[in-house]
Automatic annotation (TrEMBL):
InterPro entries: Asp/Glu-ADT_sf_sub_c (IPR036113), GatC (IPR003837). GO terms for biological process: glutaminyl-tRNAGln biosynthesis via transamidation; regulation of translational fidelity; translation. This is Aspartyl/glutamyl-tRNA(Asn/Gln) amidotransferase subunit C. It comes from Maritimibacter fusiformis. Its EC number is 6.3.5.-. The keyword Electron transport does not apply. It catalyses: L-glutamyl-tRNA(Gln) + L-glutamine + ATP + H2O = L-glutaminyl-tRNA(Gln) + L-glutamate + ADP + phosphate + H(+); L-aspartyl-tRNA(Asn) + L-glutamine + ATP + H2O = L-asparaginyl-tRNA(Asn) + L-glutamate + ADP + phosphate + 2 H(+).
Amino acid sequence: MSIDIETARKVAHLARIKVEEDRLPALAGEFNTILGFIEQLNEVNIDGVEPMTSVTPMRLKRRVDEVTDGGYPEKILKNAPDAREGFFAVPKVVE
């Protein structure tokens, strides 16, 4: 697959990138170089290779998903400009 100048112009428009007309041939060349690298990757034999989510076969540590107050609500509310009854207080904006 090859990218021509018109396709490069369209990609730049879709990406909302302003590209001057004299830079479009260079942009098309860069796109073609990227596509060439992708074609090289398609030549790699991956039969029998399982998909990976990480380069190390480790499982992330997980914690119990439970709602807590953080353990120190006093410290958190100390930074609030206005706190009442253990909660952040905000000005009323809807009548």
